[in-house]
Amino acid sequence: MYTIKEDVYVTDISEEQSIIFDYNNSMYYSLDNFSKFIWSLIDENDVCNINDIIVSALNKFDVSEDVLRNDVQQFLDSLIKAELVMETNEKK
Question: For the chain, how many structural domains are there in total?
């Protein structure tokens, strides 16, 4: 399960791009359409698991499940590394 850490905020620049600002380290991060979609799933659901993300993304993007699973995992790993989200054992 994934949840967004405190003091992390997102601002939409356009329909397809957003910027994340992390007040903890004063860093900005850019989100493209795909990463913005994943971020919104985590944000809207407060706690979200990778399978929920993949099912939702498969309905939106024209890509194979294997490719999508890999891309989602890489993006989630990058969010964890940047300390923007954290893994949790909480259930929805």
Answer: 1
Contact 15, 56 (CB under 8 A): no
Residue 92 lies in a domain: no
More confident residue, 45 or 20: 20
Q: Look at strands 8-14 and 2-4 and give their pairing.
A: unpaired
Q: What is the largest CA-CA distance in the chain?
A: 36
Residue 86 — left, alpha, or beta (φ > 0 → left; ψ -120 to 50 → alpha)? beta
Q: How far apart are the first and last CA of the chain?
A: 9
**pLDDT greater than 80 at residue 47:** no
**How large is the C-alpha radius of gyration of the chain?**
13
Q: Domain containing 12: what range?
A: 2-87
Q: What's the pTM?
A: 0.86
CATH number at residue 17: 3.90.930.60
